Amino acid sequence: MSTDAPGRGPDGQGQVRQIDLHRSRVEWLRGEGRLSDVVLSSRVRLARNLAGFPFPNRASRSDRVCVLDLCRDRILNAGLAERMLWIDLHHAAPIDRSLLVERHLISKQHAKGKLGVASGGPEEPRGVAVAMPHEQLSIMVNEEDHLRIQVMRTGFDLADALREADEVDDKIERRLDYAFSPRFGYLTACPTNVGTGARFSVMLHLPALKMANEIDKVKRAAGDMALAIRGFYGEGSEAVGDFYQLSNQTTLGKAEHFLLHDMEHEIIPRVVEYERLARRQLVERRGDLVADQAYRALGVLRHARLMSSEEAMECLSRVRLGAVLGLMPGIDHQHVTHLMLVIQPAHLQRLAGREMNQAERRAGRADLLRRELASVT
Amino acid sequence: MSTDAPGRGPDGQGQVRQIDLHRSRVEWLRGEGRLSDVVLSSRVRLARNLAGFPFPNRASRSDRVCVLDLCRDRILNAGLAERMLWIDLHHAAPIDRSLLVERHLISKQHAKGKLGVASGGPEEPRGVAVAMPHEQLSIMVNEEDHLRIQVMRTGFDLADALREADEVDDKIERRLDYAFSPRFGYLTACPTNVGTGARFSVMLHLPALKMANEIDKVKRAAGDMALAIRGFYGEGSEAVGDFYQLSNQTTLGKAEHFLLHDMEHEIIPRVVEYERLARRQLVERRGDLVADQAYRALGVLRHARLMSSEEAMECLSRVRLGAVLGLMPGIDHQHVTHLMLVIQPAHLQRLAGREMNQAERRAGRADLLRRELASVT
Asked: What is the predicted ipTM?
């Protein structure tokens, strides 16, 4: 086992470059696993804080530096993965931070680094550890909480994600003293996370429910079950390409396994069944229309000279639906899913090796898609 | 010289089958000639009536039969072309009539065959003669007037179209007695055609003026000059695919050569210059956008599984613009123009060899376009 820890030096730049944008098969984008026709990926996130330090939004700069140094050291030496990559985000270039957001390794807030009233002045000291090369595990340090342990799985597998998250949690806890109350459980900066500190999320692809105008029903039902629906890029992001992230809202007073059981055996399978039913009905009633839309989307992707990321996501979503439904034999839906990542602005610029303004990105994105899809039949 | 005259028998069916839909290079769709970047085709139409017979809308059935027999015989024996095809429209299948409309060989009204108060009962006796194989000349018998001589040219060449129309007119006049008034000129069923009986039309492709929202200006200017703007299929048809047919409205009191001079040297060149300017501005300001739209249209044409004729025309129009502007090196704009014809409902069904309802046509049209454009790069 080796650990990469050049971030210990004064400069954390360049670490992100170790992520191979061309070849890496990112866990959450593999497009395999249980119910993967509807569930793109599963995620478990544990919020943890260190005893004896104020929460990040209340912490002084020196507190934060201290927490960051401590966590970086313990995480990199906890034997969490074959290889852990460490990135000091306060030293990382904006485009590298965006790249990590696009890969779902850090939150948008963590990329920005503005936490609360106590913040100001130079960049907040903060970082992220990423398990390489599959990025199935990432640990944010000094986000809203001192530690945010995040484990991803392709398809629908919250149980296995929780298993790994618990292992990671245990290994870290052996080296760090967590803020814990016998009455409330794990203490967190935001009360909604107190208790288990666990959030379960699944990324759902719901194009048929969208076409059937049934998304609002799903949203209402989710609200009734205290679930939040977010977009492809989490909190505050819009649903693009018919992808919806469904997650539990509160953790206080519920044991992890109850939360897990609800998500794993009740809620998600029901939504999946609902989407599958809508797909079957679509195909039965207007299979020609679904194929038409999927192929048109492919046609646009293969021919356009200018393309926004929103439109690309919409087109890729339609192609993915067509592929998953078996209507497009020549299409590898894992390739389609991979394209959803590389058409994002930071990926696009990193792949091109240069900064691009919005107009250049639109042209570059269209070029990339044409190249990638040229050989598809 | 040979003439085809099986229409003289009791049954005119089957004649339309002699038109080769696959190979014929129809004159008005050749996409060549003067100003052909903007002017698809030019047309001269002469309205003529026989002396001693009521106009068709006032004629009895036996009058019409008499006119038809007379005209058919004279036309087929006037040496008008290497080979003239004759079709008795009252015996032709509806799909064959539609096919002739789509080829701009007869008007919609002539296909329908309902003329006026005197009509009723069985199909109106009426027909059309077509010069084969290029269809540059067609003569409708018993349309609004007894004779409608129509000559087409690719690109902008009203003068040559008029030259041939006059030749044809002279040859027919040698064999038939026209209704002519020394004071008014040629007499016609509708007063707007009295005089020369000539109508000059050009089919213009004005996508840039459309994009620049300048079409209304063209329409106003045309109205001021007593010109009518019609759609791709003449009177009462909508402009599809940014094609507009511009023609003079009145013929009374104007000599042919004045009319021709106005159209040939004043009006049309001005509209063409206006469209060209709009294209130059488009390319200078947003060349990337024009290419993007053209390629997207091509992408849709090459991938869709269902397509209406309206959408096909719009897409083909955009591709034609891209090709004419030199933005799409792999595209032969003559091929694109040819496709505008074969995607029309009757052509589609004749090419498929079977009747199709609207849904089947949408699928069949998309299939045809995919096949035709598969090898385009």
From this structure: 0.83
